[in-house]
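Need tokens for this chain, all 152 residues.
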Amino acid sequence: MDPKLTGYLRRALSHEMAAVQLYLTQATLCELWGLPEAAGKLRHESEEELEHAQRLIRHMLGLGLLPNSTQLPAISVTHSLKDILMADWHMEAEAIHLYAEASQYCSRTRDESGFSLFNGILQEERDHLAWVESWLNDLDSTVLQQTGFNRV
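Here are the structure tokens for all 152 residues:
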């Protein structure tokens, strides 16, 4: 087994499990803050990240690797929806970097199944980042409209 590929798979699985934990925590915070629509969106994101973890686990098992448990990083304190979205932006940017690197490695080593897995998740993470950016822009526009600062 290629130790570098094993490392990418384990890092990716750790990232996805941390993302599930983060999105579920954020969804619960939004529920507590009285933001049910935001909670629903974040819960949906956690489901997508869990699906990524499932694909990684399936690939690892197919290679004869056991998906080891990992220690999840601490969740940072957030006080607003904007704080949540900024944390999500950073998490998704890290994922894009990881999956781009892993995809390139698999391409160089001619690992077609690894490339397909990592590149597929990379595209989905790019979509997640664009979704977070769009939500941040909408949130900023709403704040400007409510304060009247968008008037010329």
